[in-house]
Amino acid sequence: MPRVSILTALYNHEKFVANAIESVLAQTYTDWELILWDDGSTDKSMEVAQKYLERHPGKITLYAHANGVNLGQERTRNAALGRAGGEYVALLDSDDFYHARKLELLVPLLDDPEVGLAYGDVRHVEWSTGREFASGAKNSGESGTVLNALFEENFLGAAATLIRRSALPNNTPFDSRFKTCGEYPLWIEIAKNWKFAYTPHPVAYWRVHGENTSLKFAVQAKKELLDLFQLLKSDVRYVDQAKAIQRQIWKRKYDYASEAYSAGMFEVARSEFQEVASATEASRKLRTKSRILLGTLKLGEPANLFLSRAKKRLWSIRNPRAGV
Asked: How far apart are the first and last CA of the chain?
């Protein structure tokens, strides 16, 4: 029975971490270790974790950075990985939780030696009401060779994955340059060399709360996605995917500009829209939409503040659960 190392970067989630740990203890697959690593929490997260360590010393370990510093989730995951002894690696953010059968469903999918990553569906949960809803990922369910599908969309929930340890790149697989999409570069790198396997069952739950749905978070996320594809464009390992990556750069640039507009960052939006509007490689649809919004920006700041607020309001109506 392969051993699974579950990595949890713990940061200021005292009201959620007990639920996360309990979901691991409830696993029907029992050969696992949970490595909790505190990333400079200033609340009582460590106290909660310590109680579980005392009750389950053979299954749970707890670490913290020297002097209680905050290094960020990806560097914390890399530190935890350095202590992991399992053949397989799973991720669990301290505000999320697993379905009891997650490992039972995913471990057998890695029996295929060509599969580097197995995953299932992730459900979103409103933290204030407990209501569940689907992630909305269009490409969820892709299996086999998934690199092109991953370029289009990050359809994996981190907690819904199980990774073959040998499929991880050496040194620091989790990229600390990205704060909002730290796993996405890793998924792409694994997909370059390995197959993915999928089970059509919910295996994990992503908790929706104010900290991960704020407008500031959304703008940063769109910018980081653009930065990621610009880095991929200059990476010689992806030269065969150059055209697909360039298409994504224009799409991600438009998405970043649109999010910046919603946030009232009009100069940023104007600069990005201008690039897309004049790019012959961008799709006609993106060029047209960018020109329309450039025209709107000429109306002046008061009008655009009104329109950006209206755009945010329309988005919240269409996505009523996202702001909870």
From this structure: 40
